[in-house]
UniProtKB/TrEMBL annotation:
Keyword Plastid (UniProt): yes
Family as reported in the entry's similarity comment: Belongs to the bacterial ribosomal protein bL33 family.
Gene Ontology biological-process entries: translation
Protein name per UniProt: Large ribosomal subunit protein bL33c
Organism: Distichlis bajaensis
Matches recorded under NCBIfam families: PRK00504.1, PRK00595.1, rpmG_bact
Keyword set includes Ribosomal protein: yes
Amino acid sequence: MAKGKDVRIRVILECISCVRKGTNKESTGISRYSTQKNRHNTPAQLELRKFCRYCRKHTTHNEIKK
């Protein structure tokens, strides 16, 4: 049997400081992580502090749309 809407969904987290820099010579890319969240417990966008290898420090990563 197939479920209608899954409770756990896959989300992509993106570094907000890399996105703000845009085309900066120091940053060669945008840090992204993939994870899962429970749709019922966290209906708002997910925001976590993760390590960005391009900024070389812990920064805030926000959920983006697929």
